[in-house]
Design brief:
single chain, about 140 residues, alpha+beta, four-stranded antiparallel sheet, three-stranded antiparallel sheet, 4 helices, 9 strands, about 35% strand, globular
């Protein structure tokens, strides 16, 4: 079982490890554009939650601004165990997010109760392979 709590400054190294693990999968498909990175650097602080496993390991993190999820990361070794679901349950009410279709995450978020609201060509992300030369950004809500 996992417990969820607000992140604390001491969690930063573990959060970085979880994010690195989660992002590694995404980077096989895309990377953010330079403009996106610059905008993210200037954004206001977000609320961050962490998921803690029964052995006190930090295994997931969720950043949000109200109900809009800007980052949901689960360590690769802990996927498909309910970590993402538990983090999402911790933010009350409706939630929204953007994802890139070509990563396969649309299906993951649909299983978590999200539905597609709209989609359009991704302009803030760059494909890293010819297999997905065109990327699609999907806005989802639950």
């Amino acid at each position: 079982m996992f417990r969820v709590r607000d992140a604390q400054p001491a969690d930063e190294p573990a959060i970085a490890r979880v994010a690195e693990s989660a992002i590694a999968t995404l980077r096989a498909t895309y990377r953010p554009s330079a403009a996106m990175i610059a905008r993210a650097a200037g954004r206001r602080p977000l609320r961050r939650l962490v998921a803690i496993d029964s052995d006190d390991s930090l295994v997931g993190t969720l950043e949000h601004n109200g109900g809009h999820v800007t980052g949901l990361f689960v360590h690769a070794d802990h996927r498909r165990r309910g970590v993402a679901r538990r983090l999402l349950e911790a933010i009350d009410g409706r939630a929204s997010l953007y994802t890139i279709r070509e990563t396969g995450n649309v299906l993951v978020f649909e299983r978590l109760g999200f539905r597609i609201v709209r989609e359009h060509p991704a302009i803030d992300y760059v494909a890293v392979t010819d297999e997905h030369a065109t990327l699609t950004e999907v806005y989802m809500e639950r």
